[in-house]
Every structure is written in structure tokens, then in C-alpha cells.
Amino acid sequence: MAKLLVLFAHPALEKSRVHTRMIKHIHHLPNVYFHDLYETYPDLDIDVEKEKKLLLDHELIIWQHPFYWYSAPAIIKQWMDLVLEHNWAYGSHGKMLAGKKIFNSISTGGKKEAYCTTGRNHYSIPELLAPFEQTARLCRMDYLPPFVVHGTHRLADADIELHAVQYEQLLVALTNDRISEEEYRKAKYLNDIYPIPEQVQS
Amino acid sequence: MDQNSFFFQAFVYLAAAVVMVPIAKKTGLGSVLGYLLAGIVIGPAVMGFIGKEGQDVLHFAEFGVVMMLFVIGLELEPELLWRLRKSILGLGTLQVLITAILIGAIAMSFGMQWQQAVALGMILSLSSTAIVLQTLNEKGLMKTAAGQSSFSVLLFQDIAVIPMLALFPLLAVLTPATVADEHHSKTLVEGLPGWAQTLVVLGSVAVIIVAGRFLVRPLFRIVAATRLREVFTATVLLLVVGIAVLMTQVGLSPALGTFLAGVVLADSEYRHELESDIDPFKGLLLGLFFIAVGASIDFNLILEQPMLIAGLVLLLIFIKGIVLFVLGKFFRLGLEQNLLFAVGLSQVGEFAFVLFSFSLQEGILPKETIDIMVAVVAITMALTPLLMLVNEKLVLPLVGTKEKAPEREADEIDEKNPVIIAGFGHFGNTIGRFLKAHKIGMTILDIDSDRVELLRKMGFKVYYGDATRYDLLQSAGAHHAKLIIIALEPAEKRLEMIETIKKHFPNLRMLVRSENRFDSYDLMNAGMLHVYRETFDTAMRVGVDTMKFLGYRQYSAQRAARLFAKLDEANLKKLAAIRDWDDYVLAAKENIEELERMLQTDNNQIGGIRDTGWDEESLIADPESAKAN
């Protein structure tokens, strides 16, 4: 069993259909600690010591957030700036996070096809997530492919539910060490490991 | 022992109620049945403490029904009445008409003359406002679709009594009884021509509305300003009694008049106070009324003709129930709600007693018939709580509970606000404006009648009253609210209120205003988790601005202030536990020193915030990064 920390950031969760559903499916899971950053720090005053302790207590970490301007909402950046201290998370003496797995779990209005050289967003999601990947690398962490919900503006409620179930499945598998190294490497998105069956999609 | 002495009478009634009602409630029978049983026990049938005077008591206690309608009116706002217009007019009219016709037809088939049949049909079509509303209220069913439909029908019936009274003299077939003039001789309108009577009636209704709007509120304000509670109560009673007198004088139902007055005052600031002042009187008189009904059941008559009476009771309940059920179905009540509605209203009401004695005077029905019917009516009333209990415990579980009537959902009143604000001075006012801007429902209570008046003009729904009182909190909906903001000015009032709430509304979350540190300690020791020092946040803002003007960065000053506040809050909790003054001074001194140490600044940085993530010193010193650059 591996303990998983979900660092969740949404400045207006009440407006989000996707994240509300996703949270509903994962917050109760055993070994999953759901940490709502905006709810805990409404004025962005991150409690650094508390956050460091949380990181140490978990082997798996997720940054879960909407994909704002090809990145995360502000509090995630504040969290990175303040918590990932030099000589603690990185630097020649900073090895506290070494070996932990981390990835982004994001929602985006654009379809998957929009995220390629010929699409309007020009870059693929993994390319755009490079700053997160590199942050993880500098902290000697293992950066996994992202979990992505595409086309959120036009998703039917049923499809959102399917993605939420998929997310739950993934988290259950992760906390129970059911996913092999090879499976991670092969997947472009973590979604690919447990694809939603063709026939149930709209 | 003088059985007729007032004290002994009062003792018997009160003792019967005090003994029987708790027993009935404990065994799940409800208070109405408890009172009825108490009446039977002390009545001629069992112990014989009260005999014929039970009838007089019944008339006196009918005033309880009058008060109940006043309270109902208070709880009804005109827009709700407007929303219910369909069920009041449609459901109400159909119920009275169809039931009256059916019962009349049966009466004729038994050989009655048509005039008698019509009178009987009309009398028996009515249901008991007192029993039904009391029972529904007690079970918390008033706001359900069934409750609303029941209320609509009962309201229509209460109004329908007036034309019935007018119609009765036309139905006389016998020589009027000799007692006839006792009833009529007292009214003002006696002897006036028909059009003048109508004018007087309309005029008095207008008087109630106009006076309620423009006279009563200023009067209450003056009385409230004296801050003498009993005078306020007296004024409320005066209002209700006054209306009852006026209505009786013009030949209208007092219940209808007070109901109207209640509706007029429903949106006034004194609504909750009026309600809680009149409530004990209403409750006692209604209790007395039910006792009197129980005592008036003539068991000798029943024993003489048991089969006839039982047959009539069953027939009546059956006919009324079926009519109600079919109408309920027609008006789209769900099965469960419909059963509640039909069973609830299947009895004959207290107005039947009035109408029976009237029809005796007018010479419509013979005395023998009336005696039997009075017993039948009393029994149907006594059976209602039992029937409702049977319905609730045995029938409803069979039809699949929790069925909802989606079409009627919109008719439910939901005036229960999630937030109550106690005290609406500058402090409560600011909170109120903020919440109002976000359309959060609040019930506001304040003791200053001038301020209440002013705020009402500004568009706030503020109610006058002492928020520390249990009954006022109760009628302000403290049972349903999510939280209460205690923003009263006197510190001891706040503590008093906390005790009341802890005792009666243990699930209500309390957010409490506090004057200063010492006040906060008291509140924390009273178990309060959410304590807000009224000057603290403002003072911190001045501190931040001071730093800003001294040249510090705003954001850093802001963060420093928040850290300071957090530490100070933690200290407050620690210090709250210290009772001894010397120990306190010592501990406080240590805490201040500790705080200073924690916030100790060096090289012009403020707040001592160890946001080393924003520091580059160690990074610059790190050989690894030096290599990379």
C-alpha cells in the first residue's frame, strides 16, 4: 500500500462540474489524503512546515487542478515557491522527496486534437507540462504521465462521471501498487492504462 | 368542598392536562388526544368533576381557536395566501360543496326534509381547524403538500361559516326555539336593513386592515419602548380580544377577524414577538377547548343507541374521507400525502357545535337529532388523532414512504432562514449587509424598537424582541437555522443567550462577537469556538497601513499581520484557561516576549516569516548551482 497526497487547487470549485465529480470519487478512498489548497489557505498563506510534513508522509503526490493558461492556478505556484525549499527538496543537500512519484491531474476545455503542432495550442500536454516535469526532476522525484480530462466545456454529465470513475480506478490501482513501471513508460496519459470502453462513450 | 369554586375548577382542568398530556405524548398519541382523554376522565362519564358547565367552558375556550387563527395569520404572508389561492378556492369550495351534497342526499333518503338535509350537510362538511392544525404542527407536517392543502381547505371552511350563518334562517321548518333571541340581541347590526349590514361588515374588515397597517405598528413601537414585557403582552391580548369583540358585534366570525389581523401584521417587525407572546395563551385555551370537547361527549346517549351512533360516526368519516381523497387525487397529491390529507380532515369541526345550537334556535333541526349529532361530532373529533396515528404507523408504511408530490413542491413555504443574526447594531448590520448582498436568507432580531423601525424602512427584515428568550428564538426558526451570529452589545446578554442556545438548540452553531480579550476568555470558557474580537481586525489593518507608510512592502506587511493574528489567536486560547490574576499577568507577559522573539526581524525584513523559498542566499552558496551557472 502506498499513501497518496492530492494537492488540489481550484479557485472556484463551485463552478467546476469536472473536479466536483472527480473529488466525489476519490476523497473517501483509503490511503488517499485530499488536500484542498484554496480552502485551507484562502489568503495564500501557505503553512510551509505543515506542507513539508505532508509531503514526507506520502509516497505518491498529485497536483490536481484545471489547466489555466497552460499551467496551474496561482496557489500551486505559491506552494512550489514556498514549500520546495532549497537544501530540503533540491540542491546538494535536498533529498527529502527523492524517489516519490508525482504527476498532474488536469482538466482542460480543449480537445486532445487541439494539443499538437497543427492544433491551436501548438504543443502537446506533456510538452506544456515541462516546468512541472523539470521541477520534479530537480527534486529527484519520478514524474509520471498526466491524467487529463479533455473538452470539459462540452462533456455530458455522464461522460464526466465516466472520467471520474476512471480516475478513481487509477488511484485505487496506484495506492495498491498495481501498475508496473513498464505501463507508466508506455502511457502518454495515465488515462491510457484504464481506457474508458468505446461503447459507453457518447 | 365547593366544587364550583373557580380555583377548584382550574385545579381540576390543569391537573387533568398535566397528568394526561405528558402520558399521551410519551405513548405517541399526541397532545390533542391527551387533552381529549383528560376531558373524558374529568367529565360526567368517569369522575364527574365537571358537568353541564362544560358547555360554557367550551364556548370560552373557543377563544383558543381565535388565537390560533391569529398566529396562523401571522405566519402567513400575503404572497403565500396568493400562491395558495387555487387550493383555497378550488379544493375548499369543492370539498364543502360535494360533502354537503352527499351528506344532504343521505339525510333525505333517511326521510329528512330538504331544508334540514341542506343544513346538516353544510354543518357536517366542516372539519376541525383546531385539531388538524395542532396535530399537523406537532408532527411538523404543516409545510408538506398535505399540510398546505389541509390548511387551504380549513381556511375556506372558516370563511364559509359566514354565508352559512346567513343562510340558516331561510331553512327554518320548525317553530324557532324560545332561546332564539339570546344570540342575536347583542350584535350591533341587529335591526339594520340588509345593505347596511353588508356595509358595516365590509367596513369593519377595512378597519382591521387599515388599523393593522397604520395604527397598530406605531402603538407597538411606543409600548415596546417602555421595555415592559407584560405591557407588550397585554397589548397583544387587547388587540386579539378587541378584534373578537368587533367581529362578534357585526356578526362575523372572530376567528376570521383575528386571522385577517394576523395576515396584516405578518410582515411587521413585531411578528415573532407577537407570536411568542400569544403562544402560551393560545396553547392553554386550545387545551381547554379539547378538554371541554372530551367532557361534552354524552356517554349516556351513546350507551342508549350505541349502534346508531357508531354507524353515523363511521359513515361520516368514510364519506368525508372519500371525498377528500378523490379531490386530493384530482389536485395531484401523492398517495402518501393524500392519505394524510384525507384522514386528517375526515372529522367534523368545532364550528358544528356553534351551527347546531344556531340551527336549534332557528328551528331547523329538532333537539333529538342535534343531541345525537353533537355526540357523533365529538366522537369524530376524538377519533381524529387516533386515525392519524393509525394512518402514520400502519397504513403509510405499506404504501411506500417518502413519496413526494413533485407538482406541489412549489407550494411549500420555506421561510426558514439558514442564518439568524441577534443584535443589529453597527456590528450585526455590517454582517447583515454583506450576507444580504449575497442573497443569504437571514432572520434578524433586535431589541431597540427605534432602530428596528429605521432598518425596516431601509429594507431590512428586522424583528423586534429580546433575542435571549427561548420562545423568540424558537419562532425565529432556531430549530432549522444552520448558525446564529450573536452580535448583541451587552456582554452578559451574549453569555445568557449562549446558555439558552446550548440548552434548547444544541445543534445550532454560534458565531459570537466579543468586545475584548477578557470578554473572549469568558466566551471561550463558555465553550465557544468561534469568537470574534470586534476591534482586532481593524487594529491589525491600521498596523499594516502604518508599516506601509513607513516604507515596507504591502504584501509583506499583510503577511506579517496575518502571522501575528494567528499567533495571537493561539495565545488567547492558552490564556483563557488561566483564572488567577497574578498567573495571568505573568503568562501574558511571557507570551508577549515569545511573540516578539518569533517575529524577531533582522536586516530590515519584517514579520520574521521564514519564507526561505523566496530567499536566494543558500542557493547562491550551493556549490551545485554555482557549477550550473
Output the structural class of chain A.
alpha/beta
Order of secondary-structure elements of chain A: EHEHHEHEHHEEHH
Task: Please give the share of residues in helix of chain B.
Answer: 55-70%
In DSSP terms (H or I, runs of 4 or more residues), the helix count of chain A works out at 8
| Shape verdict of chain A | globular
Strand content of chain B: under 5%
What value does the Rg of chain B take, in angstroms? Answer: 32 Å
Query: What's the gyration radius of chain A in Å?
Result: 16 Å
Average predicted local confidence, pLDDT of chain B:
80
Most extensive chain-chain interface: A-B, 12 and 15 residues
Q: Strands of the biggest beta sheet of chain B: in what spatial order?
A: 3-2-1-4-5-6
What ranges of chain B have pLDDT less than 50 throughout 5 or more consecutive residues? 178-185, 401-415
Average the pLDDT over all residues of chain A and give the rounded result.
94
Main β-sheet of chain A, in a few words? 6 strands, parallel
The counted number of beta strands of chain A is 6
Provide the structure class of chain B. Answer: mainly alpha
Beta percentage of chain A is 5-15%
Structure at a glance:
With 202 residues, chain A is of the alpha/beta class. Chain A has eight helices and six strands. In chain A, strands 1, 2, 3, 4, 5 and 6 form a six-stranded parallel β-sheet that branches.
